[in-house]
């Protein structure tokens, strides 16, 4: 009986394991994702010539996938093309600052990840540094420290520029445009932020909008997985208890039968 019970439990646990695909080959989009990551790692190592070759290989592969599978929207094609061109420039422009080179290829890497995954996009990992820098922006503004405000605001804008296109792919158009407009307003009227109370309130609104986007995306990713675990685990328990109950019923029935003989 115990061996049969373990068989039932094991079969139930197998339901939690991802079903292996019949085709073990890496999908074209995964190959593109891997190429973008390799280009970024090479750029970080200052192997710009090798990174450029990888980006060129990406271009050929991307064109092939676009023609054959037609899996990308016009917005995705436009955003990928712009990010790819900037990444190519980062590997060939010898006068560009090394940090800027990394930022541009990172932007490209995040874009490809955003179109290749539906869960946990890499750009959301930027939440902590972006909000930390924004805290510095807010503190400098409230203290009226112009130099610190400009420095921290420029740092924030640099980080935002890195995640801007990938965020645009994952956030609704209306919500993204609202956030982007508010950031551009603060940048354009940065002097007013230090002198006008209403402008300083924009910082608090912007902080809330940023936090809300990160929180909502995280909630959307987590809840389905949680429900899947609850449902799957509950199914195993139900199957196991049903089997135990059935065996108990059969055993009790046999004992009654033996007593009557």
From TrEMBL:
InterPro entries: Spore_YpjB (IPR014231)
Keywords from the UniProt entry: Membrane, Signal, Transmembrane, Transmembrane helix
Transmembrane stretches, start-end: 226-246
Annotated signal sequence range: 1-22
Domain of life: Bacteria
Pfam families with a match to the protein in the record: Spore_YpjB
Coiled coil: none
Identification of the protein by name: Sporulation protein YpjB
